Amino acid sequence: MNDKYTEMAGRLIVALDYPDAEAASALVRELEGIPCYLKVGMQLYYAAGPAFVRELKSKGYSVFLDLKMHDIPNTVRGGAESITRLGVDMFNVHAAGGTAMMKAALDGAESALVADPGLSRPVIIAVTQLTSTSQETLNSEIGIQGSVQDAVVHYAKLTQSAGLDGVVASAQESALIREACGQQFITVTPGIRPAGSAAGDQARVLTPGEAIRQGSHYIVVGRPITAAENPREAAEHIIKEMIEA
Ligand SMILES: O=c1ccn([C@@H]2O[C@H](COP(=O)(O)O)[C@@H](O)[C@H]2O)c(=O)[nH]1
User: Fold this and answer.
1) How far is residue 56's CA from residue 88's CA, in Å, rounded to a whole number?
2) Any catalytic annotation for residue 201?
3) Cα–Cα distance measured from residue 174 to residue 168, given in angstroms and rounded to the nearest whole number
4) Domains in the chain, ordered, with CATH?
5) Whether 116 is catalytic
6) Against a cut of 0.90, is the pTM above it?
7) Ligand 1 near 208 CB (within 6 A)
8) Partners of 220 in the beta sheet?
9) Of 163, 238, 196, 236, which is closest to residue 1 (Cα–Cα)?
10) Is residue 3 annotated as part of the catalytic site, yes or no?
11) Where is the active site (predicted)?
């Protein structure tokens, strides 16, 4: 395992979108030895809860808890405190919740660290526009005028001014975000589709290689790995493409 492999595998976040711990654990076993990040989203967390997150942490994985909090600041503060106590490496909120809500997420995380100085502060990021949202949906259904790119950059700047570490966006917007917010501001990009794979419900997609070339810090991949005939091979293929980008 060379340095480049370890670096790129660490920038691959595999989405464990499964109905229970048993199914998720089966994939984790298949990927054993690949130093990737693992993402626990709503489906798995609502079924398997904090115990499963602790299990992944005890196995040494970096964990992104993708619960996309979007509530009043006081509630998000409490949620962020509980999440930070779990020891996850990254979690998120919706940028649409506004500055006070995003600052409350930071506050909540800080409170957990005061209570337990042994913890590290997770990376806290905000969702800009979901990668399933197309230009058409944004304008005609959601009622936000202007381009998706403008909306994403607006949310990214808001997130940065609230003091968060980065955003979730499509890799199609990574370069624009870097231009607006700088290289250190983290871009976590789902909607990744290796050439020839089905987009499904994703509207703003890019291949793993193109996402890396656009400057994404992390790529999030679910179904192209979890629904593959050979998930380990699919993950290795994606890492290879990232290395070659
Ligand atoms: O804008 C967003 C925010 C989060 N996601 C999550 O990423 C994965 C993508 O899974 P695929 O199967 O590769 O489409 C999934 O867990 C989403 O909840 C996103 O897709 N877009």
Assistant:
1) 10
2) no
3) 10
4) 3-244 (3.20.20.70)
5) no
6) yes
7) no
8) 13
9) 236
10) no
11) 66, 68, 71
